[in-house]
């Protein structure tokens, strides 16, 4: 199971692409509002109903990954949330896959999780990736962390997550079925 965290002001394409591609690949995805309401508004005023709220979840044995979509002010809300902070520290301790796209890698960088890791982010947020080996690649996968640059790289980000959680053949099958080019 994968938790996709949704904060007010999240970048819709980054969240929905991940949810859709992972589900097409047979991965159970649970959308998690980091607030108290199941309804979360994206940066472009698309209202999404999450499956649950963050106070109701645990990182039990079935959870394999936590995904942070970017967007503004969604990333700021993720960064300021004590519940997100607790969840991320627990995920890192349990060696789960942690993935962040666009501005959201700053949440990982500010906590020191990316120190010595190859990482990428939306241009202008590099200073927050403390100690990371910065890249301008669409997607970087280093150890238990996957980072990506933004809305335009969201599908590549999702395919990389799928490849790690399932395998390359399944990721390629989903990509091909979607006629998603390189």
TrEMBL record:
DJ-1/PfpI domain boundaries: 2-163
Highest taxon, organism lineage: Bacteria
Protein name according to UniProt: 4-methyl-5(B-hydroxyethyl)-thiazole monophosphate biosynthesis
GO annotations of cellular component type: cytoplasm
SUPFAM superfamilies: Class I glutamine amidotransferase-like
InterPro entries named among the record's database cross-references: Class_I_gatase-like, DJ-1, DJ-1/PfpI, Prot/Nucl_acid_deglycase
Segments traversing the membrane: none
Coiled coil: none
Gene3D superfamilies: 3.40.50.880
Record CDD domains: GATase1_DJ-1 (cd03135)
């Amino acid at each position: 199971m994968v938790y996709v965290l949704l904060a007010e002001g999240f970048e819709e394409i980054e969240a929905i692409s991940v949810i859709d591609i992972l589900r097409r690949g047979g991965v159970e995805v649970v959308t998690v509002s980091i607030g108290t309401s199941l309804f979360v508004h994206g940066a472009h005023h698309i209202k999404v109903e999450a499956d649950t709220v963050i106070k109701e979840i645990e990182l039990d044995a079935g959870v394999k990954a936590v995904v942070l979509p970017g967007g503004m002010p969604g990333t700021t809300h993720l960064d300021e949330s004590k519940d997100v902070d607790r969840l991320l520290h627990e995920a890192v301790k349990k060696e789960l896959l942690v993935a962040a796209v666009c501005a959201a890698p700053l949440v990982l960088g500010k906590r020191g999780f990316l120190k010595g890791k190859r990482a990428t982010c939306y241009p202008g947020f590099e200073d927050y990736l403390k100690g990371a080996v910065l890249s301008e690649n669409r997607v970087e996968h280093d150890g238990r962390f996957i980072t990506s640059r933004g809305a335009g790289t969201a599908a590549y980000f999702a395919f990389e997550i799928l490849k790690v959680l399932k395998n390359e053949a399944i990721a390629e099958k989903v990509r091909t079925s979607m006629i998603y080019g390189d």
